[in-house]
Amino acid sequence: MKQQDIDDTLCPLARATAIIADRWTVLILRELRMGNDRFDGIQAQTGISPHLLTHRLKAMEDNELIERKLYQERPKRYAYYVTDKTRELDGVMLGLRLWGMKHCGFDPDAESAVTM
Question: Range with the lowest mean pLDDT among 2-6, 13-17, 100-104?
Answer without folding.
Answer: 2-6
